[in-house]
């Protein structure tokens, strides 16, 4: 029998505590600024956490109660690992608020909010590692689902969290297939050069199909407001984006690498959708060329400086500067590309907005790397939580109109499509 899971429902301030005091404690626990905590705390009835064990849920309720926040612990209808997405009824709101939400709303900017906690995720992370080792990797599929459920469930947009409902068994099947192929490929390469070459060709043939299946699987079991995402990319498109264009990049000595990268991003983002509504991706290839050229210029400039520093002073200083170069260029490239990608994604009249800051991300990379090395890897959970918090802080969505109504319409369309189109010939495997 599956272990039951629980969710935490926000009720508001405790009877003997003022709203200001309770909100301050709420912000401290979830590591939020007062501006981020205010809209979340202002709506009693929202889900704060989900997929918790009884002990975890009890600890959370007690922890929140100590800072003056009243919460309720409820058992969820289904275990977190089942494949069918849970349908959570929306919190009951006053009639005045409901009427206000039904009226057409103008454009409004809504920030992403991440409420994860480093120590909380550390307990999930360490258990996942230990169980994966004990089970010789079999539990890694369940570990992946638990990780995704934690980060999805703690990421909120407009006071609603995302959810991930994939079945770990299907992910395990995909990993077994990949492992068998790897073993056959390795053995074939040892026995015969021809057999190894044939297996390599098969890898190139099936790689686009695997990419499409992976993106489709991940999208299908990721949802927002009980509406799943979708991916409609085709195998030929994946072959062009991930094989043919990169090969041309090598042939042209890197001149077409930015174009290949652009085609990959366009294939991924342009073929995703929310329910039945496709996303649009409007980034231009020129913006990627600018980023690649600037990154290359920075790398060459600092690499020469590191080389001469190593010759003139000491090789260790040169190596240290090379490490700094890597972090600097990685942060620069990541921030510039993220801003390009997210600012180019639209969904009907809605749009994503990103304003990632280079200085903040560079400090995040440097401090995370230093603390991970210092703690021999034990800081990794905190590093992942800090990174997710940074991404949420500098990413937002522009909603035009009533998002509740839009999601409700997509929910009906998805259900109608599911009834009319069966999945009899659709192989559901998470690679």
Task: Characterise this structure.
- The chain is of the alpha+beta class and 431 residues long.
- The chain is 60% helix and 15% strand.
- The protein has helices at 19-29, 34-41, 54-66, 95-102, 118-134, 140-153, 168-191, 193-220, 235-251, 257-270, 285-312, 315-343, 358-374, 380-393, 403-420; strands spanning 6-13, 47-52, 69-75, 108-114, 155-157, 160-164, 222-224, 227-231, 272-274, 277-278, 280-281, 345-347, 350-354, 395-399.
- It has an 11-stranded antiparallel sheet.
- The protein is globular, with a radius of gyration of 24 Å.
- The two termini are 27 Å apart.
- pLDDT under 50 segments (min length 5)? 78-105, 418-427
Beta-strand content: 5-15%
Principal-axes geometry comes out as globular
Helix fraction? 55-70%
Structural class: alpha+beta
N- to C-terminal distance? 27 Å
Helix-strand topology string = EHHEHEHEHHEEHHEEHHEEEHHEEHHEH
The major pleated sheet works out as:
11 strands, antiparallel
Radius of gyration: 24 Å
Number of alpha- plus pi-helical segments: 15
Strand order of the largest sheet: 10-9-8-7-6-5-4-14-13-12-11
List keywords for this structure.
single chain; alpha+beta; eleven-stranded antiparallel beta sheet; 60% helix
Please outline the helices and strands.
Layout: E1 6-13, H1 19-29, H2 34-41, E2 47-52, H3 54-66, E3 69-75, H4 95-102, E4 108-114, H5 118-134, H6 140-153, E5 155-157, E6 160-164, H7 168-191, H8 193-220, E7 222-224, E8 227-231, H9 235-251, H10 257-270, E9 272-274, E10 277-278, E11 280-281, H11 285-312, H12 315-343, E12 345-347, E13 350-354, H13 358-374, H14 380-393, E14 395-399, H15 403-420
């Amino acid at each position: 029998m599956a272990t039951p899971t629980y969710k935490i429902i926000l009720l508001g301030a405790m009877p003997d505590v003022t709203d200001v005091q309770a909100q301050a404690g709420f912000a401290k626990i979830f590591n939020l600024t007062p501006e981020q905590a205010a809209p979340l705390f202002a709506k009693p009835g929202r889900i704060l956490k989900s997929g918790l064990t009884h002990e975890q849920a009890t600890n959370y309720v007690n922890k929140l109660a100590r800072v003056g926040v009243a919460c309720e612990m409820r058992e969820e209808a289904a275990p977190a690992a089942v494949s069918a997405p849970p349908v959570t009824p929306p919190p009951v709101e006053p009639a005045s608020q409901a009427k206000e939400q039904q009226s057409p709303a103008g454009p409004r900017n809504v920030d992403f909010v991440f409420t994860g906690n480093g120590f909380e995720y550390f307990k999930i992370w360490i258990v996942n590692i230990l169980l994966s080792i004990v089970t010789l990797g079999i539990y890694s599929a369940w570990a992946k689902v638990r990780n995704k459920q934690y980060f999805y469930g703690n990421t909120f947009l407009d006071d609603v969290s995302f959810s991930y409902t994939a079945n770990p068994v299907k992910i395990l099947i995909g990993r077994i297939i990949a492992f068998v192929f790897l073993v056959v490929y390795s053995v074939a390469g040892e026995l015969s050069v021809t057999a190894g070459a044939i297996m390599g060709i098969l890898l190139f043939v099936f790689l686009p199909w695997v990419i499409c299946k992976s993106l489709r699987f991940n999208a299908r079991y990721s949802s927002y407001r009980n509406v799943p995402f979708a991916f409609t990319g085709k195998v030929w498109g994946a072959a062009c984006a991930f094989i043919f264009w990169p090969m041309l990049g090598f042939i042209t000595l890197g001149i077409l690498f930015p174009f290949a990268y652009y085609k990959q991003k366009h294939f991924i983002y342009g073929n995703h959708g929310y329910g039945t509504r496709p996303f649009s991706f409007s980034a231009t290839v020129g913006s990627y060329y600018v980023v690649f050229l600037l990154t290359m210029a920075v790398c060459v400039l600092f690499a020469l400086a590191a080389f001469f520093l190593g010759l003139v002073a000491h090789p260790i200083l040169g190596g240290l500067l090379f490490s700094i170069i890597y972090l600097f260029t990685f942060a620069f490239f990541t921030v510039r590309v993220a801003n390009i990608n997210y600012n180019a994604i639209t969904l009907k009249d809605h749009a994503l907005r990103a304003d990632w800051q280079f200085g903040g991300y560079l400090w995040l990379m440097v401090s995370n790397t230093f603390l991970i090395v210092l703690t021999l890897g034990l800081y990794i959970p905190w590093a992942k939580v800090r990174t997710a918090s940074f991404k949420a802080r500098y990413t937002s969505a522009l909603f035009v109109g009533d998002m509740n109504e839009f999601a409700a319409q997509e929910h009906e369309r998805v259900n109608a499509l599911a009834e009319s189109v069966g999945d009899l010939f659709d192989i559901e495997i998470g690679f």
